[in-house]
Amino acid sequence: MNELSIPRPNNLDAFWMPYSDNKYFKDTPRLLARAEGMLYFTPEGREILDGTAGLWCCNAGHGRREITEAIQKQAAILDFAPTFQLGHPIAFEAAARVAELTPEGLDRVFFTNSGSESADTALKIALAYQRARGQAQRVRLVGRERGYHGVGFGGMSVGGIGPNRKQFGAMLPYVDHLPHTHLPEQNAFSKGLPAHGAHLADELERLVTLHGDTIAAVMVEPLAGSTGVLVPPVGYLKRLRELCDKHGILLIFDEVITGFGRIGTHFGSERLGVTPDIMTMAKGLTNAAVPMGAVAVKNDIYETIIGGTAAGIEFFHGYTYSGHPLAAAAALAAIDIHVRDDLPGRVRAIEDYWQEAAHSMRSAPNVIDIRNHGLIAGIELAPLPGKPTERANRVFRRCFDDGLLVRVTGDIVALSPPLIIEKSHVDRIFTTLADAIHKEAA
């Protein structure tokens, strides 16, 4: 169907593009105009294989008819209704369907519009809970170096990616960080969970010694994606869970990337064997057809906050579009596909093939590490001397010109294709990427 041609826009000036080199793009634009299944198409109709599920989000592939029709139908019935002191049926239905997939006991769902909003909402819930249970001194939040929790001030503050923070001042007060888990000297080219690094969770003990009983919550990605695919070491998350329990600290998992099948289970916590107290999600929740995020919390957290107020509003937080009817319709349709097509099972069926294909890149020039789990892979390249990120950006552009969409973060090529991927797509992804890396080896 690549015969369809869509005109390019005449004016690229007005749109201030996010996370982009605007000057470079507007001199050399690369545009996507249509999508179907595993493919994007340029305005001229050229086919681009999607190796990133958009931005880690189109788990069921593009253009799913069921989701499109659900959105269209809902728009004709109820385009919008507020959820402040009112409700509409489909938001409650969507929350119940999400709760069917979340770990046992995390049955209360607060809707947001993005992963960033989910992160900030989760942090607020943690602070409200500690206050409601009589621990108002617990005002500190702990994140992790190289963590990414969106672009709100809360998520950026507990996040640990330097370039995301450097333009914006001091961030929130009362925030500290655990060390990241990247140990290339010991874990380079690990397949799946690396063997070394569980001890890094013990740094939480040091923070407790430093801050006493003032820590409200620890927020981490069970598998860090945006920083370049950092897979948790064996035993690391379990140890973090133990220490949070020991010290009365809530454990928050940011599952915006690992949610909805990405590593072979509904949520990453299930595959990794550790259940958090609070869990964020977005992206795959609606297959990215309508922006939506959510926060799932343990029942006792919800009951403590709700029970802490005799009457009136119990939690002064929310968004105009929380539980938006069109987003809720998209979520219901996306969850139907997720369950009916067993997207997590599809990941488990192909992940070994994916892993071997990813690690076949080890002999490519300038590849210094490969990390993978489920249907995610990170190929780390040695930076060009004095030009960090330049080598990976060149690979990104060449891949696009050769018909493959990849994502780069720093000098790492990150891959996270739609979960409907077939072996032929896997072969094409890594053949095209290997060719690009060889051509950009100079």
Features:
single chain, 442 residues, alpha/beta, Aspartate Aminotransferase, domain 1, Aspartate Aminotransferase, domain 2, 2 domains, 7-stranded mixed β-sheet, 4-stranded mixed β-sheet, 15 strands, 15% strand
Question: How would you describe this structure to a colleague?
Answer:
The chain is of the alpha/beta class. The protein has 2 domains: 137 residues, Alpha-Beta Complex (Aspartate Aminotransferase, domain 1), CATH 3.90.1150; 275 residues, Type I PLP-dependent aspartate aminotransferase-like (Major domain) (Aspartate Aminotransferase, domain 2). Helices cover 37% and strands 15% of the residues. It has a 7-stranded mixed beta sheet, with helices on both faces. A hairpin with a 2-residue loop joins strand 11 and strand 12. Helix 5 crosses helix 12. The longest helix has 18 residues. The chain starts with 21 loop residues before the first helix and ends with a helix. The mean pLDDT is 97. It comes from Sediminicoccus rosea.
- The stretches of 5 or more residues where confidence is low (pLDDT under 50) are none
The structural class is alpha/beta
CATH superfamily of the largest domain: Type I PLP-dependent aspartate aminotransferase-like (Major domain)
Strand count: 15
* Proportion of residues in β-strands: 5-15%
CATH-derived topology of the largest domain: Aspartate Aminotransferase, domain 2
Broad shape: globular
- What is the quaternary state of this protein? single chain
The helical percent reads 25-40%
Number of helices: 16
- Trace the largest sheet across and list its strands: 4-10-9-8-7-5-6
User: Which CATH architecture of the largest domain is right?
Assistant: 3-Layer(aba) Sandwich
CATH classification class of the largest domain: Alpha Beta
Largest sheet: 7 strands, mixed
Radius of gyration: 22 Å
Taken together, the total number of domains comes to 2
Keywords: Aminotransferase, Pyridoxal phosphate, Transferase
Organism: Sediminicoccus rosea
GO molecular function: transaminase activity
Family: Belongs to the class-III pyridoxal-phosphate-dependent aminotransferase family.
